[in-house]
Amino acid sequence: MTASRNTTVNIDRIHSELDVVTIPRSYQTELMEQAKHENLVICLSTGSGKTYIAVMLIKEMAHAIRASIRDGGKRTVFLVKTVALVQQQSDYIRFHTDLSVGKYYGELGVDLWQKERWVDEFEQHQVLVFSAQVFLNLVDHNYFTLYKVNLLIFDKCQHSTGESCYAGLMNRHYNACHDPPRILGLTASISGGKITPGQLNKVAKQIENIYKARVASGSNREESNRHGTSIQIEHIYYLSYKDEICSNNGSIMIDFDTIESILADLESYLSKQKAEREKIEHDLAESILMTDYLGLNLTEYNALSVDYTIFLQSEYVNLPRLRYYLKNLIHTGYELGIYGLFLAAEAFQKALDLITDSDAKELYDNSSQRIDCLADDILRNLVDINLNNDQNLFSSKVLHLFQRIKKDVDDDNLGRCIVFVERIYTAAILSKILAFLSEKMLLENKNCLKIKYLTGSRANIGDAMMSAKYQV
């Protein structure tokens, strides 16, 4: 027999990507055996093989899912938080078992599927990996019931308080199920936030109450810790740029005062707009109350409705976005320094060009002129004057961060460095600053540092109108 084309498969690469396990570790076997007989929340460090324990349990309980649903068979459901994890976990289970695995998340359009389509999916697949909200919606609409699930796995189950999908599923459906599935929770931390050692038992009890399960880590912690990801925490202390530099340098502080002044004018305008909107809404509500079923007062009501619609459709609603830009501009300056403020102001100029508002043209023109003056003249000159004064040009936080990166570069010890920030603005501007500093300070090693930033798909900051290449 001849093949129509040659195909080369890199088995080593596949094995590497899927973290192939051939012989389970003792703590994995121990925890799997416990999970066969009771609901369990497994708390092990990252990299210790929690997902493989789930695979082992899926195999142990697979006798219940090999039959058709119509013939009394059940299904295993694996819940995750993100689309990326749906893909990752479904691939992992498919590789380590002989079971049919389905994957489901919102972007596939599953919210539009009818019940018949879901019946086919549950017949076709024995293990189903869902983003949590999709499965919750499915059960809420009675397209599938928990008593037809033999094993329900929650990935990263520490995020389970309040109105989360995990908590909603347990509270609304699991407790009322006459034949509930076995529960397996997987987590590297029993809390989604910071807690003190004294709060540990309380938080563990909360997790156990939510999942009707026992928290377990195995008896051989030394072995599991040895296989988990080890981390070293290094604390670096820095001084506030606002307190250290701005308060002692009038030429720098005046730039922040200028932006605060623009923001104050905007807040005043928005306050007046809010009052006008509230008046129109009040008049419209009064008119509705005075309009009877005979249509009396209908002319006045229609006129007010038109006024209200025109008001809502006016582009003044873009002004809160302008306020958002200004606040981010101030935040960026205090976080990153005057050079960061300069870069952010340049991006802000481009963002202003994208916003038009006939009702607020004077305010826009005034804001645009002041920002142009700030970015093109004052800040540019201030940056030029301080090019050799890093203490003024950059915040202490930025300098300490770069020095820490530089240390690994100089020691030839830098593999990958990930810097997490809270705001899109900060990510975009910080990447430019680090690139500037690498050109200035790394000299011979400057080409070894390649810097990119990743943000959400809604990022929109002037010239950071990013392609999908720089979005996650």
UniProtKB/TrEMBL annotation:
Descriptive protein name: Helicase ATP-binding domain-containing protein
Domain Helicase ATP-binding: 31-208
PROSITE patterns assigned: HELICASE_ATP_BIND_1
Entry cofactors: Mg(2+)
Key word Hydrolase present: yes
Recorded GO MF terms: ATP binding; DNA binding; helicase activity; hydrolase activity
A single cellular component GO annotation: cytoplasm
A Pfam family of this chain: ResIII
SUPFAM superfamilies according to UniProt: P-loop containing nucleoside triphosphate hydrolases (SSF52540)
Family per similarity comment: Belongs to the helicase family. Dicer subfamily.
Keywords for the protein's UniProt record, in alphabetical order: ATP-binding, Helicase, Hydrolase, Nucleotide-binding
InterPro entries cross-referenced by the UniProt entry: Helicase/UvrB_N, Helicase_ATP-bd, P-loop_NTPase, RLR_Helicase
